[in-house]
Write a structure and sequence with these properties.
This protein has 171 residues and is of the alpha+beta class.
């Protein structure tokens, strides 16, 4: 491969690293052509950009980045695919679906943290997206107000019923 082509690939990978806030490094060694095609189809459907890269070119692209990705370098052996995404937990959930021909998770950069090893897949799948966290906070903030309104509504019926019973009672 010519140096110009390598430089182009390195800059394209660098642009993807800047564009997407999360990426996964996956080993696709055990997948045949059909399984790789299925993985690509699933990625496309989930809004994940999949790219198969050479490890040396990926290292150069990571070195050129402003962030420190040195913890990921030790995982860059064998066939490597990058999964770029906007939501941190989507690729992890998708990878868990591939039980029979599981593409192995090497590492991930999600939520500004580095996760190394296939054992981190469950942890990554459990991460909540920004929208899910906002919904949880809103639900927590609304909960006390809903309890007060509910108590007032149920109490008004109780007080009204009590006053009505006392009013109807013979003296």
């Amino acid at each position: 491969m010519k140096k110009e082509v390598k430089d182009t690939i390195i800059s394209e990978i660098g642009e993807l690293i800047v564009k997407y806030p999360h990426f996964y490094i996956v080993d696709v060694t055990g997948l045949n052509a059909e399984q790789t095609s299925n993985l690509r189809r699933k990625c496309f459907g989930a809004g994940i950009k999949m790219s198969v890269v050479k490890n040396k070119l990926l290292i150069k692209a990571l070195d050129a980045s402003e962030k420190d990705f040195s913890a990921l370098y030790e995982t860059l052996k064998g066939n490597t695919a990058l999964l770029f995404c906007e939501t941190a937990n989507v690729p992890a959930k998708m990878l868990k679906e591939f039980k029979d021909v599981n593409p192995t998770l090497k590492a991930a950069y999600a939520e500004e943290s580095v996760f190394v090893g296939a054992d981190k897949l469950a942890e990554l799948a459990a991460l909540k997206s920004k929208n899910e966290l906002i919904a949880d906070v809103i639900a927590l903030l609304q909960s006390p107000a809903k309890n007060v309104v509910s108590a007032l509504q149920s109490g008004s019926g109780t007080i009204h019923g009590l006053l009505q019973t006392l009013g109807e009672r013979p003296e």
